[in-house]
């Protein structure tokens, strides 16, 4: 636009000052004068278009869009263009022809009334669009939900354009909807992007009424803490679980959490949370309410964590999966014990010396390490089924992280003595354990882009474990710690 308006301005000025004199020799002086005046009017309009092009390039495109990452609605840009053109036209007419718009506006009053009646909806959309841009109720990039009786259900989408008549929304299914501006101003509109902080969502979970509510809350909340570490969900404010329903058959819970509208859609955020909650429900065998009337015995719900639950936890722990036989799992479960941690207490502290591991049964925990300034930095969140502390259990190494209970937490603790008993009977387990730990170290190194030699790491772990359990494996098998 800058180039074309600049070229037009130069041509008009050349024709005005030199062209008419060269080619207008057959015209009367009056005609030449009028042509020159109208050429100056046209040149004035071209100059305003040139100025508008500069504004579009330097301000709308380079400053707002590129430097500040903000897009300006085309309606605002068009209004400025029209205003500049009218200003240039009025200046040119007044300067060259002595023309005033006052008489024209007075004479066209009746025409304006007729046009206003005929174009009511158009004018309504126009002024609605102006009000939207002036009061800043929403802008390009905002996520909106529009509630109106003209559509069967609320419309959720991202604003991609605001024109003279309509607001265009990109819907979450890929379609594009054109909403008249007066619909957006005359109906409730929820702007999910204003203010820019996280917004709350909730999902409902219904469990059999015979399940203790406090235990269900701990398990759901622990998994929610873990789920909100995924992209698009917000860690702050923290998730919460509240009891919302109690009937003779069921107890209902609302799992409340926060998401970032600019990063994830609400339906996807709910899906992420529901998938996580389903895992903890299935893993812990939490029964749903009875939805049909049947002549049958009531389900037996074991509210006590016993040997069966302990064996199941050991079976799913990565360290013992495919390593222990049924007899060994049974023996180990009998030697473990159940521990409970209040919310906010530490399961372990970085740097402490200990020889135990925990398998989380209920609740959630935060794993953090000390940064450069000794500030704790979260690296993971654990929930039901996760394991922590294997390295200390098998090598006696100091804790390399601090683990803090985010909820009331129940865990299965395995100390050094049960492992010694197993190794005394089955020394070959040492090699299996070292292989599992070495594979885990290899995965962590790959994430950090620091490849390691699996065989060397496994050999080092075997040496450290032999040294730690030398009283069981024999002095000749002991090795110096790495």
Model description:
The protein has a 5-stranded antiparallel sheet. Strands 6, 7, 8 and 9 form a 4-stranded antiparallel sheet that branches. Strand 3 and strand 4 (176-180) form a beta hairpin. Helix 11 (326-335) runs antiparallel to helix 13. The longest helix is centred in the first third of the chain and has 39 residues, at 29-67. It has helices at residues 2-23, 29-67, 74-97, 101-107, 109-118, 120-135, 181-186, 213-227, 266-283, 307-316, 326-335, 390-395, 416-425, 429-447, 454-468, 470-473, and strands at residues 143-146, 155-162, 166-171, 176-180, 189-191, 199-208, 233-234, 240-246, 250-259, 337-341, 346-348, 356-362, 365-370, 376-382, 387-388, 402-405, 409-415. The chain starts with a helix and ends in a 9-residue tail after the last helix. Helices cover 48% and strands 20% of the residues. The protein contains 16 helices and 17 strands. It folds into 4 domains: 2-107; 134-191, SH3 type barrels, CATH 2.30.30.520; 199-283, Alpha-Beta Plaits (2-Layer Sandwich); 313-477, Sandwich (Jelly Rolls), CATH 2.60.120. Residues 107-119 and 476-482 have low confidence and may be disordered. The protein is elongated, with a radius of gyration of 37 Å. By secondary structure, the chain is an alpha+beta fold.
């Amino acid at each position: 636009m800058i180039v074309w308006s600049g070229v037009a301005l130069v041509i008009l000025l050349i024709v005005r000052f030199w062209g008419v004199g060269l080619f207008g020799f057959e015209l009367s002086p009056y005609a030449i004068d009028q042509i020159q005046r109208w050429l100056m009017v046209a040149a004035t309009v071209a100059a305003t278009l040139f100025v508008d092009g500069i504004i579009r390039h330097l301000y709308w495109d380079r400053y707002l869009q590129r430097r500040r990452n903000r897009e300006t609605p085309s309606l605002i840009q068009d209004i400025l263009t029209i205003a500049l053109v009218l200003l240039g036209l009025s200046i040119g007419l007044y300067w060259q022809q002595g023309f005033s718009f006052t008489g024209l506006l007075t004479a066209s009053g009746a025409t304006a009334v007729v046009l206003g009646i005929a174009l009511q909806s158009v004018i309504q959309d126009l002024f609605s669009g102006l009000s939207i841009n002036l009061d800043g109720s929403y802008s390009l990039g905002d996520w909106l939900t529009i509630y109106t009786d003209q559509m069967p259900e609320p419309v959720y989408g991202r604003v991609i354009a605001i024109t003279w008549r309509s607001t265009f929304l990109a819907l979450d299914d890929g379609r594009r909807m054109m909403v008249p501006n007066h619909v957006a101003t005359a109906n409730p509109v929820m702007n999910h992007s204003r203010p820019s902080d996280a917004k709350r969502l909730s999902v409902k979970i219904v469990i059999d009424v015979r399940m203790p509510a406090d235990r269900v809350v701990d398990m759901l909340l622990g998994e929610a803490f873990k789920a909100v570490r995924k992209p698009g969900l917000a860690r702050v404010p923290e998730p919460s679980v509240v009891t919302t329903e109690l009937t003779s058959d069921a107890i209902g819970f609302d799992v409340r959490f926060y998401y970032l509208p600019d990063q994830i859609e609400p339906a996807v955020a709910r899906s992420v949370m529901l998938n996580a909650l389903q895992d903890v429900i299935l893993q812990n065998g939490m029964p749903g309410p009875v939805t049909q009337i049947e002549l049958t015995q009531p389900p037996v719900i074991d509210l006590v964590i016993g040997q069966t639950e302990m064996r199941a936890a050991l079976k799913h722990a990565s360290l013992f999966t495919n390593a222990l036989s049924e007899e060994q799992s049974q023996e180990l479960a009998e030697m473990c014990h159940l521990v409970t941690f209040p919310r906010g207490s530490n399961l372990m502290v970085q740097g402490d010396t200990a020889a135990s591991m925990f398998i989380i049964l209920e609740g959630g925990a935060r794993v953090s390490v000390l940064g450069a300034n000794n500030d704790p930095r979260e690296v993971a969140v654990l929930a039901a089924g996760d394991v922590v502390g294997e390295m200390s259990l098998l090598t006696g190494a100091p804790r390399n992280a601090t683990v803090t209970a985010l909820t009331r937490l129940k865990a299965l603790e395995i100390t050094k003595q049960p492992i010694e008993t197993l190794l005394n009977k089955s020394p070959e387990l040492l090699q299996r354990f070292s292989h599992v730990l070495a594979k885990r170290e290899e995965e962590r190194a790959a994430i950090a882009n620091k490849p390691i030699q699996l065989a060397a790491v496994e050999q080092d772990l075997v040496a450290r474990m032999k040294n730690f359990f030398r009283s069981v494996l024999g002095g000749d098998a002991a090795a110096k710690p790495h």
